[in-house]
UniProtKB/TrEMBL annotation:
Protein's name in the database: Peptidase C1A papain C-terminal domain-containing protein
A molecular function (GO) term: cysteine-type peptidase activity
UniProt keyword Signal, yes or no: yes
InterPro entries listed in its UniProt record: Papain-like_cys_pep_sf, Peptidase_C1A_C
Swiss-Prot/TrEMBL keywords: Signal
Signal peptide start-end: 1-21
Coiled-coil zones: none
Domain Peptidase C1A papain C-terminal per the UniProt entry, residue ranges: 68-253
Organism: Neolewinella aquimaris
């Protein structure tokens, strides 16, 4: 069922009163040592408001998209690496915002670095790697690489200050929608773990609605919403032949049911 008018009005009122207080992208922030923020008030304080993308205007509170600021869709070599490709997608967005060049960052370096350290690569450890050391350009460690060259020790690293949990599996569905919209309205992509059915990797067309048991998990980046249609637009790393050129829309209701955990990056200044 559609979200009720009081919820929508509350959302608009909250953003209109809170967004101007957010620090602009690149503004200095206090040091934060805890990896993985859970308190939503702290995440609100740390989350960037990006001028020219995030906006408190009514039109942009109704719909928002950062799609044009993202790099081209890529195809993950195996679904077990989706989280790393989604993580690199989100980091690239921030790295390239204030640059005259567009740099692809290496998700493969993240996975191999963790594996070489004796860890089973996963998203939370990937966040930790970006906090502590960062990843490198995909020009140094290309997609589908099997080795890390020695040159990584003498090149620029790209990382984050921290990350926040926007919601968890126990969060109510409409709160997942609320927090995701709030982050996007300020110009921030949201990395999400989505429960799906077995047909997801073969999806054709621009809309996803589960038709069977949702026993699989996929990692995607939420890059936009439409408040009139009550849909989110999600970006995958399953290639341009998947969905609608690598993108898919999902209703607020289905998102509230299927999105298990949502994350937002706190990039470096």
């Amino acid at each position: 069922m559609p979200m009720t008018r009081p919820i929508t009005l509350l959302f608009l009122l909250f953003l209109c009163t809170r967004v101007p207080a957010q620090q602009a992208y690149g503004a200095a922030k206090s040091a934060e040592t805890l990896q993985g923020l859970n308190d939503l008030a702290t995440i609100d304080q740390m989350m960037y408001y990006i001028p020219g993308i995030g906006s408190p205007s009514r039109e942009e509170l109704l719909r928002q998209s950062i799609k044009n600021y993202m790099m081209p869709i890529r195809q993950v070599p195996q679904t077990g690496m989706e989280w790393a490709y989604a993580l690199a997608d989100c980091l690239e967005y921030y790295v390239n915002l204030n640059s005259n060049f567009k740099d692809n960052l290496s998700p493969d370096y993240i996975v191999m670095n963790l594996a070489n350290a004796g860890q089973r690569p996963n998203l939370v450890d990937g966040f930790g790697l970006l906090i502590n050391s960062g990843t490198v350009s995909a020009a140094i460690v290309p997609y589908n690489s099997s080795t890390i060259p020695n040159s990584v020790y003498s090149v620029a690293r790209f990382g984050i200050t921290n990350f926040g949990y926007l919601f968890r599996p126990e969060t109510r569905g409409r709160n997942r929608v609320f927090e995701t919209r709030k982050a996007l309205s300020r110009g921030n992509p949201v990395l999400v773990e989505l429960a799906t059915d077995a047909s997801f990797t073969r999806l054709q067309g621009g809309t996803y609605e589960p038709t069977g048991p949702t026993n699989e998990t996929h990692f995607l980046t939420v890059i936009g919403y439409d408040g009139e249609k009550e849909t989110f637009e999600l970006r995958s790393s399953l290639g341009r032949n998947w969905g609608n050129g690598g993108y898919v829309s999902i209703s607020y209701d289905d998102f509230g049911d299927l999105a298990r955990t949502g994350y937002v990056l706190i990039p470096k200044e």
